[in-house]
Amino acid sequence: MHPLQIIVLAVLSWFAGFVTLRSIGLWLVSVTQDSVVLTGTTKSFIDLFGYGRYDKLLNSPWMIMLKYLGMTGVALVFFIFFYWLFKQNLLRKQLRQINDAILQDQPMEQESLIPEIVQLEESIEKMRGHQAELIKQEQEAQQAKNDLITNVSHDLRTPLTSILGYLSYIHEDRYRDEVELRHYTELVYGKAQRLHKLIDDLFDYTRLESTEFHIKEDMLDMVELLRQLVAEYERPAAEKEVRIVEMYAVENLKVMGDGMQIMRLFENLFSNALRYGASGKKIDISAKKEAGVAIIEVSNYGAEIPAGDLPQLFDRFYKVDKNRTTTGTGLGLAIAKSIVERHGGHVFATSKKGKTTFTVQLPISEG
């Protein structure tokens, strides 16, 4: 409230109190002046203070002080009343301004607002921001759901259409001989395997994203786990004439985690390196310890990934190959990211000078 407004209210209240008290006093004097009856107590009071007449009592310092005190009290009452009216009017006015600002979706100027309204306006702005964020998250979730349905429908339909096509040839005896029949059967089997892999990946991904999923924590030796995986992938790598090079800076690299999930994480990274980096003829596997973090890198020397695609590599169904000519499900890296984050770690990719590296960082266990 502006100081000038307070001064005006105070003067107005004092004047109203003066007029009110003066009017009441004149009325009382006019009523009692000619017919005042003094009781014994009143007479004793007058005698005690040395006053012989009633009119002297009215003009005594005591009565003058009482009169001004009464006037001040009445003025204070009027001040409180006028101040309350002013605040109520100002409050209604500023509430209408806030309402208009909300309806027009415009910010308010806080300089002209009283503190209570400023706090209310700030709370409303926070609520609006929170509501807008919730709406944005809901829209993103809905869009992600729609994208998931679209991608799943596409990736399920493609192998299923091929399976039905080849099975129709077999069902209608449209093959020339047993060799062609076997060829169709192998194609159907391959498509069915891809379909099965996609369904498994979808199940794993949704399970990892669920809030009800809990990982099992066991002490894992990452170097030993990586060596086991390399042994498993030596044959498929040899079939593609790819050499796997192991580089371990430490022999003891312990982390707490779910062994099955960690194994799945690096299986996905190994498979990705073989699928997209086979042309480089080499895959590097390295492990080291740095500042309490286990750092494992899986590198391939295939086609370089454009910088614009790197941030989206771990999105579900994202493929650098926009024409979908590759055989992956598009969920492997998304699953890998979910597993790493469930273990309190971080995963990212870099690609430059013909070398693409996927780096996994996991907290080391000191146990």
UniProtKB/TrEMBL annotation:
It comes from the Bacteria. It is an enzyme of class 2 (transferase). Its main location: membrane. Its EC number is 2.7.13.3. The keyword Kinase applies. It catalyses: ATP + protein L-histidine = ADP + protein N-phospho-L-histidine. The chain crosses the membrane at residues 7-29, 62-86. Residues 151-366 form the Histidine kinase domain. This is histidine kinase. It comes from Listeria rustica.
